[in-house]
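Table S5 (text form). Sequence records supplied for joint modeling of the three-component complex.
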Amino acid sequence: MESWKQNKAVFWVTALPGVVWLLLFFLIPLALIWGMSFGEKTSIVDIEITGTLANYLRSFEAVYVKIIWKSIWISVISTAVCLAIAYPIAFGICFSPARWRPLLLLLVILPFWINLLIRTYALIAVFRTRGTLNFTLEWLWDLAFLDKLVGPYQPLELLYNNGAVIVGMVYVFMPFMVLPLYATIERLDRSYLEASLDLGASQWRTFFSVTVPLTMPGIVSGIILVFIPMLGMFLVPDLLGGTNAIMIGNVITDQFKAANDWPFGAALSFLLMYVTFAALAVRAFIGSRMKGGVGV
Amino acid sequence: MAKRKSTRGPLEYGKSPWLILFGIVTFIVLYAPIAQLIAFSFNDSKRNIVWRGFTTKYYAKAWNDASLVEAFVNSITIAVMCTVIATIIGTATALWLWRFRFPAKAAVEGVMALPIVIPEICMGVAVLVLYSRVGHWMRGFESGPIHWWNELFSIWPLNLGAITAAHVAFSFPFVAVVVRSRLAGFNREYEEASKDLGASEWQTFWNVVLPFMMPGVIAGALLSFTLSLDDFVITFFTAGPETNTFPVKVYSLVRRGVSPDINAASTVLIIITLVATIIAMRMQAPQKSEG
Amino acid sequence: MTKPIISIRNVTKRYPGVVAVDNVSFDIMPNEFFALLGPSGCGKTTLLRMIAGLETSGTGDIIVDDQNMEGVPANQRPVNMVFQSYAVFPHMTVRDNVAYGLKVTGVAAAERAPRVEEALEMVQLGSMADRKPDQLSGGQRQRVALARALVKRPKVLLLDEPLSALDAKLREHMQLELARLQQVIGITFIIVTHDQDEALSMADRIAVMEKGGVRQIAGPEELYEKPHSRFVADFIGKINLIDATVSGVSKSGVTCKAKGLGEVIVPHDGEASGNVSLAVRPEKLVLSAEPPASGSDISARGVIRDVAYYGDVSNVFVTCSDGLELAVNVQNDRAAAGLLENGREVYASWHPSDTLILQE
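The corresponding structure-token record, covering 947 residues in total, follows.
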């Protein structure tokens, strides 16, 4: 790596396009909205930046605290379920025959490349009242003669509740969790596991005392990678949650699209940004603490 | 006496029946809804549940829906423009960060990664605010000398420029990451050897560095194509009534309920993205054996 | 007669397309320092890992201290291993690493602590107990791996290429250290190595392996002086191998017609017929300007082609008639001074009893 002073022409030619674009279409917009989060509406269209904290304080009103709290716990549960599914999957792929690994990995992450909206829509067709799942359950119900014994099958209301949002979140984000886990488990030197077994530890003991601590950077990355977009998610609660499963993302969208209270929307989206920064700081901290030992 | 021991090795977790079963179930759950979506785009039934025979009439219906086709053309146009710009910028950024040491580099790298990590909705509303501000400001020139500017940007495809610019902003950092990870496997002695043999800076780049990083550039290009084509949230906030994209159009249809022509249109989009993704992954594959 | 601590009986392990371990049987005695020596891919590590229970699905029996290891998982075997990469857990301190094996098998804390301290003292790491592995040198990490295995008081300690990652000086030091430890603790060590010097200097007995099979098991001296095959002779140390054909066997020895030497008579106890190799170590050869005085010596006239100078000795390559090339180790004393010049005509000679006949 050379110092930028050695070749200033090349330095600026390669630096400027990205820096300028990021500045114009990312940093300045963020700065605008950050400023706006301290602003007040003076008329239908005009917003004055007055330095007020009212927008942030407003998010502590009971109705919004409830929504923020719900966004957090839905994201936490969904992240936990993602981890519980993704870890065994990543682990299994790492320990499968080498020639299968690329294919299995491709199969896991391929759905991630399918449009999120389309995947959510696909879930609606499965879970709606006249959807595949209810249809299958009804068929099983009739197969077991329960319609003769108990009465006709009552379709389950599977959509438009918190459960549906969690299922949707897990469905949509699970593949994303597998990637960082796979990357760390793959790099894990297997002789650590062998040494643990050789020293008398059981398989489970080895898993919790050696495998999990040594793959912690991947776990943390996966959690952050999945938790942040979940927290700001707008589509999944919008389509699967109906009106009674609103999350922060929906409130923000409302402020900009319907309620026209941009300063409040700006404050809410910057609350999300602050959480994101905090999460990144946590990752950096854990990363630096693990660094010496694991070399990640 | 020799006996056959059929026990699994202590680390052969890949052979654990429980893990295999778990994997199979997970794959089924992952793919079943998508498979169903594709299957029912060919189902000759409005009710969408029972198979009533093969048909392609929903594809014809989607094809004849002018607004859907327009949205589709818009999406592809934006994705292509975004890919070209994001690939150039992303590659330049990758080269920049790969090659140079400069003050506050870690901070720059952190900022470059921000579009990748922050929630999409934050970027969506931020870009919305930017464009409303610029629009507000531009209207001040409605009768002034820059009037032609406003005219110009209402002509297709330049009217898609605003969305494209936002798409470039979130996809070029991905391109930079992919290209840079490719460059990480580059032995800088090749570069030094080239210069030692008398090649200029530009000749070295063109003949040595560029061919090496090409798979990364192509993978990055396809990635930005897919990202742009798939984006809903940011487009949702920046699209005007004239500039609908396909995901935004599908969203408005989905809100009205499940219908087979959405399935048909979705299937087309799925196929386009999957082809782009698989090609991109093929491009990245040799990187492993070399690195 | 003492009972063996480990019996390997007809052990075979196949991978798709290769036989990694091919029907191997031998015994290892208590307190022995035993080496598995061979080139890479000869199956020595696989065999070691089978003893540890880290490779399964082979056939045959591995018996440790009268107990058949079939079906016994790695974590319940009375053996412990020092891994090639040491595998010292990076997220634990030195002390926690050493304590790990006791902790996971339910040894009470009160008993654990003194055993851990004792093990750390044994490898002279008492002062480093609270360090993390990334603060240790390679040699220190290896000693942690040793202490961690020894604290379990295994019946057999398995060492997989333990010295290969160390630099030459440290390796020599650790050879002595390992030999000393084995003496002090008095348990069986099985070491896997591809380095003949390592095996010769440390081990009581050495099994030389090639292509999954054991070619010869013997003490270092016997292995060097009386190799049974071309492979062992060539793998252990340097040796001149001369193609020859047996023409007759008598009481005084075997008469053969050797390449570049003509008819020679070599004392030999066993059978010999057909095509054989005459093997003679380079240090047994003597160079002289004149033909050797003793008529009974085997001798060849040749020209010095190359002299490689190593300080105390020189390796001299002599080209003789019939394309015979001989390597000779010459002490760099006064006698050698005028002799070692390229192109000079010399006589290379040795005593017939220093010659081995190796049947193919």
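Note: The two ends of chain B are 47 Å apart (CA to CA).
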